[in-house]
Amino acid sequence: MVQRGxxxxxxxxxxxxxxxxxxxxxxxxxxxxxxxxxxxxHGSQAAANYERLEFLGDRVLGLIVAEWLYETFAGDAxxxxxxxxxxxxxxxxxxxxARELGVRDHLKLGKQARDDGASDxxxxxxxxxxxxxxxxxxxxxxxxxxxxxxxxxxxRVKAGAKAPQHPKSQLQEWAAAHNRKxxxxxxxxxxxxxxxxxxxxxxxxxKLAEATAExxxxxxxxTAAAKALLEKLG
Amino acid sequence: MVQRGxxxxxxxxxxxxxxxxxxxxxxxxxxxxxxxxxxxxHGSQAAANYERLEFLGDRVLGLIVAEWLYETFAGDAxxxxxxxxxxxxxxxxxxxxARELGVRDHLKLGKQARDDGASDxxxxxxxxxxxxxxxxxxxxxxxxxxxxxxxxxxxRVKAGAKAPQHPKSQLQEWAAAHNRKxxxxxxxxxxxxxxxxxxxxxxxxxKLAEATAExxxxxxxxTAAAKALLEKLG
Lengths: 234, 234
Description:
Two copies of one chain form a homodimer.
Chain A: H1 2-26, H2 34-39, H3 51-72, H4 78-89, H5 91-101, H6 111-115, H7 122-153, H8 167-177, E1 184-191, E2 198-205, E3 209-215, H9 218-233
Antiparallel strand pairs in A: 1-2, 2-3
């Protein structure tokens, strides 16, 4: 009984964290958490995973970005619009947005996928980002989805055909392009009091190169480490 | 002066025909015909052609079909949804819908493109269909576009992964698959009074085979001829 109570309490805390994060992310508390839980669930974790919502969300994102470009670049021919479009909806950019929003802390992965680094994979984060957009569209409609995407993608739309990449995405692409293992991040040190921690993170690409950096969150330290390693790699 | 008056009258008749057809097609008279004229204009005819609207309409159609499948096939996994999706948004199906709606009579093609058979090309008709959906979405919004697409695509969504094809699309694909020239249609005879004409059309695929059929419109006779030729070809 004690244990069952503890599990229920744990599940309650997870759901309340999720509701809080979704309210912050979408600007409104979702009526039902279930579709969002599903959007955050990888195939390795459950059959009720994000894949169907990603199928839908991919097209929601596509329309919103296409319309945005159509309006913003009234002088562009179709070829130029398509180039911009592809740069904005690519997995790396979706993953970049997902990282900014803190999607990673809410992912539900199976053990194997977690061990394989899925929680920082551009593929997984990008897919989940699209699935979340699909869930939000189902709940709130196109206007709300459009507002969300325009805010989350922000200046990327003006940044020209080649969207600026998050250093972690960039490093991951570098490793893939050079046939190296995906980057691995590990915590070297955690210091400071609970309310003001400092993290030191090391990132390495196989045995090729390593860099270390500090930050006030893991995410910040990882980003700084990826940036430092990219500079080393030229 | 007489000639200029005649040209203006001609243009007036074309626009009034277009307005009539659009009202029938979309169930409401468009406020401004210009975007629809553009959606019907091939690159061979003017720089203000359908390409930008097609870029947008492609994504409008994509979202509407994806959402429709998501709702209709609640038990399908993502892979099955994608297969159905690809079968429904392919150029041949868009062209099929365009033929049913009579898009062909309103196309604006340059002379060369007309001589090349663009007015019955799956590519051109499919692109124009998407551009029209883009124009209608811009004017009337997603709900109206969804109503239009669900009506125009109709039973195709339930027809399984392989959508039934219009005989003319089917014949065109057959010719391409067998490395033959595209089908050519020619009027053999036109009889009957103006209000009740009868057309006899012959269709051939290179020098390989030919079939002839009758109908009360060119379109009807061509469809019957394509069907007859497909039967001959086995």
